[in-house]
Structure formats: structure tokens, C-alpha cells
Amino acid sequence: MSMSRRQRKRAFRAVQYGVLALVVIGMVFGADWGEIRRAFFDLDVAQAQFPGIITTALVNTVVYTLLGFGFGLALGLILALMRLSSVPPYRWLATCYIEFFRGVPALLVFIALGFGVPIAFQVVINQYVTVMLALGLVGAAYMAETIRAGIQAVPKGQVEAARSLGMSQGRAMRSIVIPQAFRIVLPPLTNELILLTKDSSLVYLLGLSLGQYELAKFGRDALNENRSLTPILVAGLCYLIITLPLGHLVRRLEARTAKAR
Q1: What is the mean pLDDT of residues 6-35?
Q2: Taking the alpha carbons of 148, 152, 158, 164 in that order, is the dihedral positive or negative?
Q3: Sign of the dihedral defined by the CA atoms of residues 247, 70, 116, 109, in that order
Q4: Is 133 exposed, middle or buried (0-12, 13-18, 19+ CB in 10 A)?
Q5: Phi first, then psi: what are they for 87, rounded to 5°?
Q6: Of the candidates 82, 177, 213, 233, which lies 20 to 30 Å from 161 by C-alpha distance?
Q7: Is the four-CA dihedral 181, 183, 189, 193 of positive or negative sign?
Q8: Does residue 213 carry a pLDDT above 70?
Q9: What is the DSSP secondary-structure string of the chain?
């Protein structure tokens, strides 16, 4: 007797659950939990990371991220307006910038600003300024496209209504279009903030002093000292302290935007 389609799906799902249960049982009884605890969950090593991983590394990670996001947001808004400009050279410049920095790895931008520019121009750039520029230049390319999409999503009738009331194009853009565009693009901008938080781990390339360590560098140095992966795990948990609330905020903002629409 042949099974119905629903019965076949149930049988297939039962097989999947069975295979998963066997894999879990095999891992539970076959793993060397003592070695796993020493490699990943060494409490003595974890305790040694505090309070420095919070007071120095976590704080610096937040500072680097906010510096890059602030600069990138301002530059991204300018680039978005240039992309929408009726002046062709503005559109060409913005397009070239966006395509270039979306195609170049952030790693190369950090190297160029941290070593290439100081050597080429014989200048000394503050570490925080270097981080702000490196993160902001890359982030601006993505935020510009996000903001541009938000501006284009604002109904044109609102601009026409503002112009009919005597507003100039610039004032209508500042007072009506851009505020509405930012409400639309707030969730993806928050996602960009999460990406910049993770990209801040590239700061280690600049050769930081102990007081400038961020989470990845702090965990890496502790890993070399202790020969245990516990510091990396602790650093990862600290990243989650930043990114999980931001992810929850994104979901709340997306739900609110969808409800408003």
C-alpha cells in the first residue's frame, strides 16, 4: 500500500529527526568533555580577562564603531544626494565612489590609511581618526545606497505639495523628504551598524597600544598567552552584548515600519 504525500513527508521528517538524534548522542558520548572544557571553557582563563575586556576592549569597540558610523552616515547622506542630483558630474563622482568602496575589502582600506597614506604624505594620523576614516569610508558606500533608496521611496506628491506651498527644493528635501527617508531606512542602517561593529576588529592592523585594544585584539593576545580558546569565546560573547540588542532593535523597527505601512 503506497503512502500518501502527507505520510511521506511525515516519514521523511521522522528520519531527519532520527539522524539528528543519533548525531547528538554520538557527540555527547564520544566527545572528550574534559579536553573541551580546558580548550573552550577554562574558568580561570575567562576570569583573567576581566575587567579589562569590558573596561578597555568592549568600550574601545563601541567607540570605534560609533566614530565610523557617524562619519559614514554623514558622508553617505552626501553621496546619496549626489547620486540623485540633476548635475551629471555629481552623479558620476558618487557612483564611482560607491562602486569602488563596495568592491574593495575593508582590510585594504585600513592598510592604505594606516600605512600607505602616512608614508606617502609624511604625516602622522591619530589612531582614532584612522579608524573613523577607514570604517566610515567603507560604510558610507553602503549607507549611501540605502539612504538613496529611502529618499526615492518617499512619495513624490509630498515634494510637489511642499513646492506648491512655496518651499524651495532644498528646504522640502531637508524638512520633508530626508526625515521620512530616515524613518524608512532606519532598520537597514542599524544592520550597517552591526556590520561596522564586526569590521572594527580590523583595527588590530594599526598596531595598537594596550589602552587602544578592541575585542578581537584583546582576545587574540590572551589566546597567545594562555594557549586556550576561552579568550576568543569570551570576546565573542562580548560582541554579542553589542550585536544582539541591535538585532532585536532592527526587528522591532522593521515591525513598526511594516505596521505603519
Answers
A1: 84
A2: positive
A3: positive
A4: buried
A5: -90, 115
A6: 82
A7: positive
A8: yes
A9: -PPPHHHHHHHHHHHHHHHHHHHHHHHHHHS-HHHHHHHH--HHHHHHTTTHIIIIIIHHHHHHHHHHHHHHHHHHHHHHHHHT-SSHHHHHHHHHHHHHHHHS-HHHHHHIIIIIHHHHHT----HHHHHHHHHHHHHHHHHHHHHHHHHHHS-HHHHHHHHHTT--HHHHIIIIIHHHHHHHHHHHHHHHHHHHHHHGGGGGGG---GGG--HHHHHHHHHHHH--SHHHHHHHHHHHHHHHHHHHHHHHHHHHHHHH-
Distance between CA atoms of residues 136 and 143, nearest Å:
10
**Mean pLDDT across the stretch 41-52?**
89
Max Cα distance, the chain (Å): 83
Cβ neighbours, 10 Å, residue 32: 9
Angle between helices 88-103 and 59-83 (to 10 degrees): 150
Confirm whether pTM is higher than 0.90.
no
Report the mean per-residue pLDDT for the chain. Answer: 88
